[in-house]
Amino acid sequence: QLQLVESGGGLVQPGGSLRLSCAASGFILDDYRVGWFRQAPGKEREGVTCISRSGMSTMYADSVKGRFTISRANAEDTVVLQMTDLKPEDTAVYYCAAVWGPTAKICTLVPDKGQYDYWGQGTQVTVSS
After folding, report:
1. Could you give the maximum distance between any two Cα atoms of the chain, in Å?
2. Is the CA virtual torsion 90, 92, 96, 102 positive or negative?
3. What pLDDT is recorded for position 69?
4. Taking the C-alpha atoms of 26, 17, 67 and 14 in order, what is their torsion angle to the nearest 10 degrees?
5. Does residue 1 carry a pLDDT above 80?
6. Backbone phi, then psi, for 61, in 5-degree steps?
7. What is the DSSP string of the chain?
8. What's the pLDDT band for 76 if we cut at 50, 70, 90?
9. In the chain, what percentage of residues exceed pLDDT 90?
10. Torsions phi, psi of 35, nearest 5?
């Protein structure tokens, strides 16, 4: 079966850093477009960043550009999200998602069916003093 598992969330002070990981089970994650999404209480799910198949391109939401970095660690079959200068408004459940196919060559932050087919269970990130 195809599974994605997020890890690395937790409580951090404003200005701090966290490293989230998205690990694949049952497939080679490098063959898939991978995106990170987040959902805060009372708000809709929003796209944060994505990386295309084989890391051909990346995309970032304006709200995180310059603070977050997505990359692949293929030896571990993992995609990582390095978050720095965290702000209280970054507090949310963060989800990893993936899709295979011709569209995987490019990035998108749209969480529609067909754009991302596989989703992890989410990991909580809380930014607070």
Report:
1. 44
2. negative
3. 98
4. 130
5. no
6. -65, 145
7. --EEEEE--EEE-TT--EEEEEEEESS-GGGSEEEEEEE-TTS--EEEEEE-GGG--EEE-TTTTTTEEEEEEGGGTEEEEEE-S--GGG-EEEEEEEE-SGGGGS------TTT--EE---EEEEE--
8. confident
9. 78
10. -125, 155
Burial 91-126 (b: 16+ CB within 10 A, else e): bbbbbbbbbeeeebeebbbebeeebbebbbebbebe
What's the pLDDT band for 123 if we cut at 50, 70, 90?
A: very high
**Strands 10-12, 18-25: parallel, antiparallel or unpaired by DSSP?**
unpaired
Condensed to tens digits (0 to 9), the pLDDT of residues 85-95 reads 999 999 999 99
**Cα–Cα dist 52/25, whole Å:** 19
Tell the residue number behind the tokens 């951090």, with chain if given. 12
CA atoms within 13 A on the CB side of 66: 2
In the numeric block, the tokens 């937790």 are attached to 10
